[in-house]
User: Fold this.
Amino acid sequence: MQLKNTLTRYGALAQLFHWVIVVLIITQFVLALRAEGLSPIKKIGVLGTHKSIGITILVLAVLRLAWRLFNTVPPQPRGIPRWQELSAHISHFLLYALLFITPVLGWLMSSARAFSVSWFGLFTLPDFIEPNKAAFERLRDWHHFMAWTLATIAVIHLAAALKHHFFDRDDVLRRMLPSWLDSRHG
Assistant:
């Protein structure tokens, strides 16, 4: 198992960051949607977990970006159209930006509502703004908008990876899969 990236595939650490963040983002949507119809007491518990996972995603995104900056990134396959290459760069930039922006907006939203953010009950993060109902409502709207934007871009990202795999038959998807899933690299 190769820890670092190579010119042909992402290393185990980059893959781990990628897939853990994917699972955590899906979990975030499940928790947020589940919290909608709950009683206030149950909702606080579910949203507490949602906030803890959001902070985890933020920290993992920082670590993932740092890892990416100091590692080789496998190049795009030869011969792909320039617009696809540009689209890939833009979508990756947006995904990273949203992995930072969305949790920070949630953290600010909680501060504005006077609900501190705790990380799984182990420690409490500082509040960055004073309680303010109008700010809470704006931040809530932006947090929701950014979360759904993240989901939309992630689905487009998935569709592009599947297109590369099934139609272009290149290694774009395979290079992010663990080698034990790819019989050619096992």
In short: The chain has a mean pLDDT of 94. The two ends are 9 Å apart (CA to CA). The beta strands are 118-119, 123-124.
